[in-house]
Amino acid sequence: MGSDFLLQATVYMGAAMLCVPLARKLGMGSVLGFLLAGILIGPFVMGFVGEEGEDIMHFAEFGVVMMLFLVGLELEPSKLWKLRKSIIGTGLSQVSATIAVVGAIALALGSSWQAALAIGMSFAMSSTAIVLQSLKEKNQLNGAAGQNSFAVLLFQDIAVIPILAVMPLLALVPSQANGGGHDTLMDWMPGWFQAVAIPLAVAAVIAIGRFLVPGLLRMVAKTRIRELFTASALLIVVGIAFIMTLVGLSPALGTFLAGVILANSSFRHELESDLEPFKGLLLGLFFMAVGASVNFNLILNSPVTVAGLTLGIILVKAVILLIIGRFLRISNDQNMIMSVGLAQVGEFAFVTLTFAAQLNILNARQTGLLMAVTALSMALTPVFSLLNEKLILPRFGTLQSEEKPADSINEKNKVIIAGFSHFGSTLGRFLRANGINATILDHDSDRVELLRKLGFKVYYGDATRYDLLESAGAAEAKILVSAIDSPETNLELATTVQKHFPHLELMIRAKNRFDAYELMNLNIMNPYREHLDTSVRMGTDVLKKLGFRAYSLHRAAQAFVRYDEDAMVELYKLRHDRNLYISASRKQIEMQEELLSNDFRQAPDLTDHAWDSEEMRQNANKS
Amino acid sequence: MRKILVLFAHPRFEHSVVNRALTSVARQHPAVTFHDLYEKYPDFNIDIKAEQELLLAHEVVLWHHPFYWYSCPPLLKQWIDLVLAFNWAYGPNGTNLRGKTAMNVITTGGTREAYLPDGRNRFTLRQLLTPFDQTAYLCGMQYLPPFAVQGTHRLSREDLDGKSSEFRHLLDLLSDMQTEIAAFSGSALINDHLKTFADGK
Known about the structure:
The complex is a heterodimer. Chain A contains 27 helices and 6 strands. Chain A is mainly alpha-helical. About 4% of the residues of chain A have low confidence. Chain B is an alpha/beta fold. In chain B, helix 4 links the parallel strand 3 and strand 4. The interface between A and B is small, with 11 and 11 residues.
């Protein structure tokens, strides 16, 4: 058992280490990498792992639960309230339309109406894990596509409850109903209690999140035992998932709710950073399990049926979403991102299909076939997204700007600004106020639309793409300013530019000192740390309120900024490689210690003797 | 060769035709370190130590600036306030500048005639520059009469070329160890001396 476990762990992790970096290198995202790794080690290619793949999948599904908790953490209640219309509107129409269309097709292909309904309900779901992970990785969560996808996924999670409730009613042989995924505490309770239990459980989750958890975390934080805090974070997620399964609700939904409630708490970031690695590992495992469970025998026996069904279901789901997106007036490219992204059949279908088989709604062959289709559609999602990104989206973005009137043909902008959210737009407005029009790159198509209307020269897309930089005129520009929020994207951008446009001067926004060091590793010695000027300016105002004179403070602040930039270069030179391996928080503390102890001796302050007559006075008194 | 430090202070340099000509003369001169104060310290936050080291490395200091309201632009005054510190430039231990030479290089909109007792500015340029004279004196430096390009609003291209070569000539003389610098003092404008020097050669 022990050595067996070690073997399996080695196989899984080894495959992941091999496939994920490769997939990223090819620009495919980590999800596809994990899926490939799963297929590779699965029973049909190398056969390292066999039938236990499904057990692992159940275990790894917990990664999805954790992910929704983390998503909830980033979504404050007020923001969720704003989303309510899309959750009900987009979500409801997607789920009901898909059930209707898929059910009708199944009926036409000769299924019983019960089976057709079961298939429709299973196939209406999309994969929360795959969709959210890729949206996050591509920084698209806040665009129209991201918000609507999220709303749909959230509605689907809610829809799980009625779907599981309806399934037994479809059963042809009711006696087997309890063999399914429904063996919860509820089944032994009287009917009236079942009715009260669900709202009660939701209320319990809210109460726990509101009152119990913050107190508990504060207490744990005081012990200063980091592991204990991690354990508490896990306990919150596991405990809430347990309560939810107890009453037969989706655990993902419960933890999401808890996350939303904790979004305003001061422990939000600690929780996030503690749970992030667990989530990542479990999700990776989950994707690998999906990859490993693709039944290639079945596919090889009836390749045409499987391929037809898979492509058919993806097409049907995508078209339904496209139509909904049209009604919502989502711009074409965002609509494509959403529709292609949500077109697969989700992991939840594994649960409902098994359940339907146990209820004798579907026979074994049907179940096997549909499971294969599900797994295959999930595996194909990243591929289709990639195709969408490389082949279809560029047509919306770049072409439109080239159709612009001839007046801009000769005008080659000297400055390119990548990223035009708060940071970039302030910078761009300042340049424009001084008569310099920059070319702008941004990946939010709604913003691109707006900026174009305002007469800016904007290109839509991922600024790290060589072809996009090329068409934005990187070859003729003088300076490329990156105002992009994500440090990883900035590094990628810098590497691309240095490789293909070495003449272009890079001016890059850095989140903090560590990002700045990373940029300096690329020989970009003037990183712009976004907090530096603001925090010193704020400190100046604090001192001003304490009665210090404004001009002296102004000078002291300028000197401090200069000192800090010099100190950064100094520390960069002294920096040890071991820093790469210690945790980020540890690094932060070490750096602050270093800075503060040095400051005590050298940091500039108000006592520089400028316009100071004290010395002269002493001299005058001497004589 | 005497080394010359040109401390140039112009808040609106991009609009000054005359100073573009004069600064390009200075920049090209082998003896000159051209130091553009408004470019270096747009925030007025002068690096005192660096400025003092520059002073130590040169024998002649030119305060090169437009004549605004009978004085220099504020950054140059800031420079004087901060860099010429007590016990460094003056005071009992302030001997670092002793024996060096200082003068103003000035552009004025008004003509030379406007800077006469019966002109609209009532005082001569030399009189109005008394504070600089005294500053140099307190630091133990020899102060020379100003080099001035006046009536800049109505200067022709030829006039400007003439002034440029005059200025180049001045820089040659100042950097040349053979030149008796003391011979320049005592007149209203150094421009007058340059003519006699030129004629004498």
